[in-house]
Amino acid sequence: MKFFIDTANLAEIREAYDMGILDGVTTNPSLMAKEGISGESNVRAHYKAICDIVDDKVSAEVISTDFDGMIKEGKELAKIDDKIVVKIPMIKDGIKAIKYFHSEGIRTNCTLVFSSGQAILAAKAGATYLSPFIGRLDDISYDGLELISQIVHIYGNYGFETEVLAASIRHTMHLIKCAEIGADVVTCPLKVITGLLKHPLTDSGLAQFLADHAKAASK
Ligand code: E4P
């Protein structure tokens, strides 16, 4: 299972990378805006800064929604660094763009996926990654994890090479359930990754070990 961090914050990306468990980064226009990044050259420079931190797989999302615009923008994003994965929305022209990038050997991440039907289309087009949004489905009383399960099952039926990248992850149980289901990748905020570390018995056990060690040393 691959771990991507879902942020455009350089300090958080560095922190996750320094743990030695990070496989990639996902961003979206909202996450870039949250970091105050705007304007074409600033956006590109920020993507380059992210690529300089991690080893590979940095999703950079197109803003265009028409085929020609997505192709032009995606090619420019891909030129920033070999680590870039072009993120394309799940719309009709997006599917055409994914097919085009597949034929050109440019990796894609199909985003804003909320149904199994959409997942089938993206796989048929040759998406490298598929991003179904768990939390946003949960928010409207649909079962986001059930969708991950359905897609993993369907892709398994046909041997689709598209990797299921579970997105919109809000808490550690989302991540753990994705691991049980067999999602290929999870992308989540830093607090979800570091949340996996926490257990009260680890904390109390460590405190006890250190106290016993100090007591023995003082004798
Ligand atoms: C990542 O690729 C998605 O854009 C992101 O996970 C969406 O998360 P959100 O629903 O918390 O905004």
List the helices and strands and how they pair.
Layout lengths: L1 E5 L3 H9 L5 E3 L2 H6 L5 H14 L4 E4 L5 H14 L3 E6 L2 H13 L3 E6 L2 H10 L3 E4 L1 H6 L4 H15 L4 E4 L5 H10 L3 E4 L1 H6 L4 H19 L1
Parallel strand pairs: 1-2, 1-8, 2-3, 3-4, 4-5, 5-6, 6-7, 7-8
Helix pairs in contact: 4-5, 5-6, 6-8, 8-9
Question: What does it look like?
Answer:
This protein has 219 residues and is of the alpha/beta class. It is built from eleven helices and eight strands. It has helices at residues 10-18, 29-34, 40-53, 67-80, 92-104, 116-125, 134-139, 144-158, 172-181, 190-195, 200-218, and strands at residues 2-6, 24-26, 58-61, 84-89, 108-113, 129-132, 163-166, 185-188. α5 links the parallel β4 and β5 (108-113). The protein is globular. It catalyses: D-sedoheptulose 7-phosphate + D-glyceraldehyde 3-phosphate = D-erythrose 4-phosphate + beta-D-fructose 6-phosphate. It is an enzyme of class 2 (transferase). Its main location: cytoplasm. It comes from Algoriphagus confluentis.
Keywords for this entry:
single chain; 219 residues; binds erythose-4-phosphate; EC 2.2.1.2; 8-stranded parallel beta barrel; TAL/FSA; transferase; Probable transaldolase; 16% strand; alpha/beta; Transaldolase_3B
Order of helices and strands: EHEHHEHEHEHEHHEHEHH
Low-confidence stretches: none
Spatial separation of the terminal alpha carbons: 47 Å
Percent helix: 55-70%
| Major sheet strand order | 1-2-3-4-5-6-7-8
User: What value does the average pLDDT take?
Assistant: 98
Global structural class: alpha/beta
Family: Belongs to the transaldolase family. Type 3B subfamily.
Protein name: Probable transaldolase
Keywords: Cytoplasm, Pentose shunt, Schiff base, Transferase
InterPro entries: Aldolase_TIM (IPR013785), TAL/FSA (IPR001585), Transaldolase_3B (IPR022999), Transaldolase_3B/F6P_aldolase (IPR004731), Transaldolase_AS (IPR018225), TSA/FSA_arc/bac (IPR033919)
